Amino acid sequence: MAAWLHKKEKSGRVAAERLRATLVCDRAGTSSNHDLLEMIRRDVIAAVGRYIAVDEEETALDIRTSRSTSEGLISEIVANIPIRQARCTGRNRPQEGPRPARPSREIAPPGAVR
Amino acid sequence: MGKVIVVTSGKGGVGKTTTAANLGAGLAMQGRRVALMDMDIGLRNLDVMLGLESRIIYDLLDVAAGACRLRQALVADRRCEGLFLLPAAQTRDKTALAPARAEEIARELAAEFDDVLIDCPAGIEQGFQSAVAGAGSAIVVTVPEVAAVRDADRVIGLLSARGIEEVGLIVNRARADLMRRGDMLSLEDTLAILGAPLLGVVPEDERVLRAGNLGEPAVRDEDSRAGAAYRAVARRLLGQEEAQSQKGRGGLLRRARRLFARG
Lengths: 114, 263
Hints:
The complex is a heterodimer. Chain A is an alpha+beta fold.
């Protein structure tokens, strides 16, 4: 049985949370939140990777809809980006030189993702 | 030129046709000349909602094909002065009318009437495209359920992509008791998720079923709470009641609540 039944959460609240999560990918025009997150994940790795070496395999993104603010419930993308090694270059500025190419926008075929 | 408003929802069964019939009659009760254009070709129902099914001679496709003049196809509602129905064809399907032709007919109606309400078929295919082609604004009908709100969100996006930004939301079949108990999507959540201004909240009301049986829209039924809500929406469409956009939204929510509380 679904976990929310055990928690005795109000079903109206569950409905709102599920809607918020579903609409994130509906609005982005992707077929699932997984596809959307994978595209964002690649871009995030590329962007952060320009400054810091990150563990690409372990970088994970998730959409959560539980944070309560004065505006009500909000959805947010939570990213876990492990830093592979702190490279001390003595500079704060990013490395000069060619930047990584922008990753393709195409969605990876099923099975190709992790 | 009159206003052309499409009544749409994406999902079927949320009350588009009921809403179109009631708002059409509600606007006519306010002294407006109203044309109801049924775009649900092949599954027309606006005629039976209004009790006009036995009086149809020509339909929308006859007009589109030039088989009759627009005025010949319009059915006057004798019980509701100023209300006219342009019936959909029942024999063909939604691909039978191209968006460009639908737009021309909507414009032709707008030249003759104060308000043109288009009853849109469910879905987002060609029937939807044709129904929204001539519209300057939209009424999006939803019910407080996940599937319906999701589809409403999609439709609002599609309307926006077509340049229709003036969108009002009707939350249909709302149940105050379930909302209070937390077992129905709240109005606040629904509005926050969809981000569209609220035009009205229509309570679940058995008298709407009765109205459908009789072929007389609930808006003319003094004892119907849904009817009262439709009357309020009609006044709101004419700017006679507070608008809801910026500061008014809370106000309208409170009023909707009061309406609930009476039942």
